Amino acid sequence: MTRALVIIDVQNDFTEGGALAVTGGAAVAAAISALLAAHPHSYDHIFASRDWHDAEGGNNGHFAVNDAPDFVDTWPVHCVAETTGAEYHPALLLPESAVHIRKGQGQPGYSIFDGIDDAGEKFGELLIAAGVTDVDLVGLATDYCVRASGLDALEHGQHVRVFTDLVAGVAADSSDQALAELAHAGAVLASSERIESA
User: Fold this and answer.
1) Domain limits at 167?
2) pTM of the model
3) What is the pLDDT of residues 69-90, one digit of tens each?
4) Would the CA dihedral through 124, 29, 68, 80 be positive or negative?
5) Which residues are tagged catalytic?
6) 3 by DSSP, 3-state: which?
7) What is the dihedral of CA 147, 43, 34, 190, to 10 degrees?
8) What pLDDT digit, counting tens, does each position of 1-27 carry?
9) Would you tell me how many other CB atoms lie within 10 Å of the CB of residue 101?
10) What is the CATH number of the domain that holds 110?
């Protein structure tokens, strides 16, 4: 078994004070860092994704350029590449070995599987090359990018756990629905206290 921690979009624009702030986002960032500090050898690989949208244009309809955002399919401008909003939250402390995945370049890019690393390799190909079989999923936001990433990981053949104490969503109802959908699809919902158990 090769296990990876997959950290979704713990970025300034998705935490308190950001363009699309998720309540509890900063606490999630700090809690993920605490988990990594307490369990430095629990993961064979660590991947962290970021929205990395183009500054120009609407990123294939993702940004509401001429109309008000509907907060379902269209959104205010956020996580533009090379801006402070796109950077990881300062409470998220990643090891040097972490692999950084950029997604949403010119497109919506909800799932980490839409992203690439610094060398242009697709995330799914990186998992195969690393022999990853098990994924622990954490980050933001439960009801959007965590949901999409988890469903894609299951479709990719991974055993997926979602640490429900290390995610935060846009809204309570849609977050609960997303977790239920992930569980129905085969994900295990667990506390990060179970990090050492399969």
Assistant:
1) 3-194
2) 0.94
3) 777 777 777 889 999 999 999 9
4) negative
5) 9, 103, 145
6) strand
7) 40
8) 899 999 999 999 999 999 999 999 999
9) 26
10) 3.40.50.850
